[in-house]
Write a structure and sequence with these properties.
By secondary structure, the protein is of the alpha+beta class. It has three domains: about 150 residues; about 60 residues; about 90 residues, Nuclear Transport Factor 2, Chain: A. It is about 55% helix and about 15% strand. It has an eight-stranded antiparallel beta sheet, with helices on one face. The longest helix is centred in the C-terminal third of the chain and has 36 residues.
């Protein structure tokens, strides 16, 4: 590798790191509590589900939707999702088909009694603030796309760091930390070692984060292509004035896909459905297939089955990247591993910023040295 090549990669590493470091620190710090969001919610939220016999019959989904609408008169149903291990459904309502999140109401409803257990519109709590900072910094879609670009810069910074790591390691054994030398050298060694140790994790979490920030444009592309082809015979039809039974729609979708279970239902007119259909999003019944969703379209006026297609590769990538980004695949042990690697990444980012500041001070005191092979080799030999 020539001196010019190393100089280019060093500049790439320097500037991509400097631009994204502050935002990556924000994402790492907010990501820590989000990794354990299930455990934190279990500790801080009181379970209001009453104890009842296991064989207590369940009410229909239509009864649950009616209970939510009775609580918020003048609104219409938007989504209905299913609790994983409790006889509870979450019904989202709003004044129109696509209201802002601030105008939506989410009600957790006991399917045995149709009693509303909780109002899930927590837009002021600690976890909500952490999530918004992590997702879009309270800036909506522009904030999401900006953080996606920062994630791409992190990937470039990581890649360039690996490239310039090779000449740096020529005179040092792997994992060497020269604790007896200057503070800057000690942090340089620690920065490089932790960077290599966390390399794959940073790449995986960084790239899945970038994919997640593309959720809105990817769903829009899916609607304009895949969904449009599925609902072509219904083109131009308005949203029905009265909806057919959502309970019957879910049963029809499950009959069309034996062995699959519903994860959520999108009502007509919302972003994940069409103007004339229920979109019953089904998932596999095994751990391996439970992350893969398949939409079944049910005519919301007649209740008849319309179409069902597997998700295209880009939507599948989006779906699989979301739990992988937060370590949700392997239970608590994987979450702990994710948290440890997150803390190590915070140390890498902080030490990188410190090294840049220390180098600027050193340059001012002792003159400028070009950022090429002589710089890296000289630091290694100090």
């Amino acid at each position: 590798m020539t001196n010019r090549t190393i100089r280019i990669w060093t500049l790439i590493h320097k500037w991509t790191s400097l631009i994204c470091t502050v935002f990556m620190l924000l994402l790492c710090l907010t990501g820590l509590p989000l990794i354990f969001h299930d455990e934190i919610e279990a500790l801080t939220e009181e379970d209001t589900l009453p104890q009842m016999p296991a064989d207590t019959p369940l009410k229909s989904l239509d009864d649950a939707v009616a209970a939510a609408l009775a609580t918020y008169p003048g609104e219409r149903p938007l989504f209905l999702s299913f609790d994983v291990d409790r006889p509870v459904v979450n019904v989202t309502t709003g004044p129109g088909a696509r209201p802002p999140v601030s105008q939506m109401h989410i009600s957790a409803i006991d399917l045995r009694t149709t009693r509303i257990l909780a109002d899930l519109n927590d837009d002021k709590g600690f976890m909500h603030v952490m999530l918004r900072l992590h997702v879009d910094m309270f800036a909506g879609l522009p904030g999401e796309l900006f953080l996606g670009f920062m994630g791409f810069l992190l990937f470039l910074a990581t890649l360039s760091g690996v490239v310039i790591y090779a000449p740096f390691m020529r005179k040092l054994s792997f994992g060497t930390v020269r604790a007896g030398r200057s503070r800057r050298l000690k942090w340089l060694d620690l920065h490089n070692m932790l960077g290599i140790v966390t390399l794959m994790w940073v790449v995986v979490v960084g790239l899945t984060g970038v994919i997640n920030t593309l959720s809105v444009p990817l769903v829009a592309y899916w609607r304009a292509n895949e969904l449009a082809a599925m609902i072509a015979p219904y083109e131009g039809k308005p949203v029905p004035e009265r909806f057919a039974s959502v309970d019957a729609a879910v049963r029809t979708a499950m009959e069309a896909a034996p062995g699959m279970r519903p994860q959520f239902v999108a009502f007509p007119g919302v972003r994940f459905s069409s103007n004339h259909h229920y979109a019953v999003w089904l998932k596999g019944a095994t751990p391996a297939t439970s992350r893969i969703l398949t939409p079944a379209l049910i005519d919301a006026e007649t209740g008849a089955f319309t179409d069902m297609r597997s998700m295209p590769w880009y939507m599948l990538a989006l779906r699989l990247s979301q739990p992988l980004h937060f370590g949700d695949y392997g239970g608590l042990p994987m979450k702990v591993l994710w948290a440890v690697l997150d803390v190590l990444t915070i140390i890498i980012l902080g030490s990188g910023l410190y090294l840049w500041i220390a180098r600027r001070r050193n340059t001012q005191d002792h003159g400028v040295v070009g950022p090429g092979l002589r710089t890296i080799a000289g630091e290694a030999a100090e």
